[in-house]
Amino acid sequence: MANFDYSKEKIQDIFMIDVKSFYASCECVIRGLDPLTTRLVVLSRAENTSRGGLVLAASPAAKKDFGVTNVMRGRDLPMSPKFRKELTIAEAKKEILPVYDDVLNFYRVPPRMRYYIEENKKINYIFKDFTSPIDMHPYSIDETILDVSASLNYFYPGDKLTRYQKRDLLARDIQIEIYNKLGFYVTVGIGDNVILAKLAMDNEAKHNRTMRAQWTYADVEAKVWAIKPLTDFWSIGSRMSKRFEAMGILSIRDLANYDFHKLHQKFGIVGLEYYHHANGIDRTVVSHKYQPKSNSLSNNQVLPKDYNAKEFMLILREQVAQTISRVRKRGAKAAVIHLYVGYAMSESEKGFSRQLKMAPTNSTAIVIKAAESIFNKFYNGHSKIRHIGVSFGHFTFNDELQLDLFSDPRNQIKDEKLDRAVDEIRLKYGFTSIFKAASLSDYGTSLNRANSVGGHAGGTDGLEVIQKRLE
DNA sequence: TCTGGGGTCCTAGGACCC
DNA sequence: TCTGGGGTCCTAGGACCC
Q: What percent of chain A has pLDDT over 70?
């Protein structure tokens, strides 16, 4: 028995689109290889952690033939003896690793985040041919939500076809267009609302030959309620799954039929959202979705070894300087600084995480002082440190210099000029063109991380190569 | 498990005010 | 009088996603 009268719910024509194994597909396309049949993995170098890095993306063939999964360690990947030998020699000589294992017919390549971002832009540019930009919502680097309610009848006028047939045809048109123009295979979840489209994509389209699937209100009981395990449902992770199980909720069907007052009581408004989603209800309107204008910026890293307090202070300053420089790049000032310090696993304490309010600033000198004061206040004085996280939040975007009572305005202006000069030099010549002498010591990590985007190698040749390919 | 990194949202509880 | 009550803001921590 349905818990909702679906005839009262608004029917929207929503597509949730993602690119199959996006990073891996980018690397196939640029090499002129087929994204579906080529065995390829994108491997983060992660020189500061375990040897061999971490699999960021694997092509469908690599998953199928070698059982590669997305968080697998590089050292667990299959490798022919011949390739292993070449790899060892290259490592010893500190040369760039070979990427192709010709015995296994297997590519392993480093990530190029900047190139992927450019490809994502091109994909979204094509979507604009199918719906108006306000009805598009980029959800992540490889997923976009499209509301085609207003354009469906423009592409498929008349009433010979049902609404559902028209949707499927339009989704197919998009798939073909993307493939012809850019070489990517995209998966489309089609739904009466955003959650149904998302669930259709995650739970059916990804496994279909057509790479399309359509879920409507009529399918809720047969399809949504049948999703299992619980963690296959969007927004239920391992922790929530355990909590639900403890309450006797073992399936989405159970969740959809649970007493929603109790869910509300126990989980607040999130509980109500789970209840609605489990019943296939989602009243989100894509064009009303505000673009969350990023309200925080952070950098985290697991350090290459355990650090003592003195060594750590260098890392701290380095990383605070890098993160605040990203804040300046946005033309923003931050009113909150947050520091996370994780102790080594051998320690009995976990570490700490504290934030501090500040007068809005983007001055390196000021935020370094703030970070140091947090550290000095909360560090236990003896634990080895293995993890650092720095984040800034509560941005403001005015240009005026905030004067506070305790600093000399002339120094503030001087600091600001210095920061801006450093940023400009780096913008022109790259991060490594200018850095504090201390970074050269053994303990600095900023040089190694200089070229990364989102913690992964940014790559330098992506744009030129793709431009050549298009010529 | 010899630890990936960058984000967002929500909540409980404390401080403080009227 | 044994414990007023309502509201806002802030912080630490939990949870999730890609």
A: 82
- Which tokens belong to A390? 């720095």
User: Would you state the pLDDT for residue A104?
Assistant: 95
Find the mean pLDDT for residues A223-235: 95
User: How many Å from the CA of A465 to C1' of B10?
Assistant: 44
A371, A320 Cβ separation under 8 angstroms: yes
Query: pLDDT > 90: what percent of chain A?
Result: 66
Minimum-distance nucleotide, CA of A271 to C1' = B10
Q: Cα–Cα distance between A377 and A381 in angstroms, integer?
A: 10
pLDDT surpassing 60 at residue A123: yes
* A292 preceded by a cis bond (ω within 30 of 0): no
- Segment (H or E) for A344: none
Q: Does residue A100 reach within 7 angstroms of strand C, measured from its CB? A: no
A6-19+116-287, superfamily in CATH?
Reverse transcriptase/Diguanylate cyclase domain (3.30.70.270)
CA gap A311, A37 in Å, rounded = 48
CB A301 under 7 Å to nucleic chain B: yes
**CB-strand contact A297/B, under 7 Å:** yes
A376 CB and strand B closer than 7 A: no
State the nucleotide closest to A293 in CA–C1' terms: B8
Proximity of residue A238 CB to strand B below 7 A:
no
Name the strand (E) or helix (H) holding A129: none
Half-sphere exposure of A386 (CA within 13 A, CB side): 11
Give residue A2's pLDDT: 85
pLDDT at A96 over 80: no
Does residue A314 carry a pLDDT above 60?
A: yes
> In the complex, which nucleotide's C1' lies nearest to the CA atom of residue A357?
C10
Strand C interface, A 197-256, C-beta < 7 A:
202, 231, 234-241, 243
Asked whether residue A387, judged by its CB, lies under 7 Å from any atom of the DNA or RNA strand B, the reply is: yes
Question: Does the C-beta of A104 come within 7 A of strand C?
Answer: no
Residue A448 confidence (pLDDT) above 90 = no
- SS3 of A249, please? coil
For residue range A361-416, what is the model confidence (pLDDT) as tens digits? 999 999 999 999 999 999 999 999 999 999 999 988 865 544 444 444 555 566 66
The CA–C1' separation of A282 and C11, in angstroms, is 32
- From the Cβ of A336, is strand B under 7 Å away? no
Sorted by where each begins, the domain ranges of chain A are 6-19+116-287, 22-111, 296-434
Nucleic strand B contacts from chain A, 146-175, CB < 7 Å: none
User: Looking at domain A296-434, what is its CATH homologous superfamily?
Assistant: DNA polymerase, Y-family, little finger domain (3.30.1490.100)
**For residues A368 and A383, what is the distance between their CA atoms, to the nearest angstrom?**
21
